[in-house]
Amino acid sequence: MGDPATESASGGDPGLPALPPLGREAERDFLPIRDYGLIGDCHGAALVGRDGSVDWCCFDRFDAPPSFARLLDRRRGGFLLLRPAGAVRGVRRRYCEGTAVLETAFETAEGRVTVTDLMPIGMQEGGVAGPAGWVIRLAEGKEGAVRMRIAHRPIRGFDPDGAPALRLEREGRAALAEGCPTLHAEMPLALHGPAEEGTAAAEFTLRAGERRAFVLAPADAAVEDPAQAARSLAEATHAYWRGWVERIPYKGPYRAAVLRSALVLKLLIYHPTGAMVAAPTTSLPEEIGGCRNWDYRYCWPRDASFALYALQKLGLLEETESFFRFLTCAAEDTLPRIPPLFAVDAGTDIKERIVEEAEGYMGSRPVRFGNEAAEQHQLDVYGQLLDLIHFHVRACDGDHAELRALATALADHVAAHWREPDHGIWEPRLPPRRHVHSAIMAWAALDRARDLLGPRETWSEAERALLQDIRTQGIHPQGGYLRQVMEEGCDATDAAVLVAPMVNLPIEEATLARTVDAVIEQLGEGPLVWRYRTEDGLPGKEGSFLVCAFWLVDALLALGREKEARERFEALLARANDLGLYPEEMAADGTFLGNFPQAFTHLGLVQSALLLQLYANGGKEAVRGTHADRGRRMAGNRSEGHRNGG
């Protein structure tokens, strides 16, 4: 049985039409983003559609060229399909309880079958192990006799300069192509269409109690018995995930949503380095048919710092430590400039390229690989990192000499450059400006440095001047709320300023209250929050930014507006898909937008759930302060809860 919050009923489900003839599976239209589920092995990840099609998969590392990419191109993208061949009456999906193993149940006129999908993961000495770069698909008959189809059409990524034709071949019961993973089946596969553009496929009847296994493995892997390999790898993967989830001490009222978000965050961590990517996909649009399509398969220190708080507060110390080492080592290697994003191996040479021939999700073009934002200057990153170091040092015993050296360098840079405009947290494609959120985080950087290392005159002068600028230029002269930029005539606010109480910015509570109300008035629609409504240098528009809606929950708690905060939080919980997953953005009608699933959104959910629990134990004073302050209070609450059986 899965978590109730992650199951969906088939009532009202439109079902699925019968498949076209063999070899014509690529004729299917795009699925809504919300129709996908995530599987992964902490190296790469795949998205599985509710119709049983793996439409996106990058092996070995998140930013690798995709092996399947129908998500971005229906004809050329490639897929791995496993589902009933005929019409489907209903589809029911869930994650097996406490795991990242996905189950999809299909009901047809002939009977019922379940397809289980996972990327194997196991525990050996040194942490996550097992065969990276595999996908296991298991079909099991539950009732009647259902005609099933397996169809395999791999690619070697999208190459903007063109790539040699991929030739699909059979070898025994395997389908293979040079440079692609090999599909191992329990029955012979036939080739349909020309080998360069063809599909390896088979149909078979699955009766109640019968199982068929399909193993997608690296080309050099020996898979003599797909059924045995699938069974042993599935058992190890179930055991790994259940053991991992048992380490999480959170017992609050939103446990199902918090655990699912924690599992998503874990799936987005690249185990070899500890880096967390923002999302496992590229070029899913912020507007259907628009050009706001970015590659999010990289690690943003901004997002990463928030994620680290969530991991630590969930008691995931191994992930916290490895992630922290990645961030601090990457920052040390690039000083004095800290780029907005890193590759999963800490690289910074992230060129943005466009694949002109790619169709794009629902015609949303261009399709991008790489991210030009790596070249931008964002002052807030320094504050995020210093706040993170402060949090770590206050939570852990030790000398921390290397961290103190890094903190000094970061604070020195902020003290010398805080007056300079930057691109801001949202990376608009505009000339730099003086963003209020950047000033808030620059102030936080100097405040944390002073607390860690003692006062220094240059830091103190800059800290006082920053706070003065925020209180004068950063607050709207008539409205009395924090605005987006420090420019005369700027009436707009920005949802990013909602973090002010979470970094303990010393402003009047009345100013914070007016800011929250201005965000709701200017940027809110129901429980959703847009990050801004101003020009950003790009055509078109975007959806609401989900993490901002969770930041609003946090700010309301800091004001003591708990009832309003909880109502908004629970309304946001209802906006997840049937598997408990969230995208980056959402339209007012609930349409999922942007890359998926999004780490930033899920860590916002975790933080809000933890703050709601903290508020219940200590009121708004317990929520206020620095992340280090809240971390200590949460640790105390956990200890008290354990003593009382909570």
Key attributes of the depicted protein:
single chain; 646 residues; alpha+beta; Beta-galactosidase, Chain A, domain 5; Glycosyltransferase; 2 domains; 14-stranded antiparallel sheet; 25 strands; 33% helix; 18% strand
Can you summarize this structure?
With 646 residues, the protein is α+β, with helices and mostly antiparallel strands. Helix content is 33%, strand content 18%.
Could you walk me through the main structural features you see in this protein, from its secondary elements to its overall organization?
The chain is α+β, with helices and mostly antiparallel strands and 646 residues long. It folds into two domains: 4-225 and 241-245, Beta-galactosidase, Chain A, domain 5 (Distorted Sandwich); 255-641, Glycosyltransferase (Alpha/alpha barrel). It has 13 helices and 25 strands. Strands 1, 2, 3, 4, 5, 6, 7, 10, 11, 12, 13, 14, 15 and 16 form a 14-stranded antiparallel sheet that branches. A hairpin with a 5-residue loop joins strand 12 and strand 13 (182-184). Helix 2 (255-267) packs across helix 12 (599-623), helix 3 runs parallel beside helix 5 and helix 6 (401-417) packs across helix 7. The radius of gyration is 25 Å and the shape is elongated. The two termini are 23 Å apart.
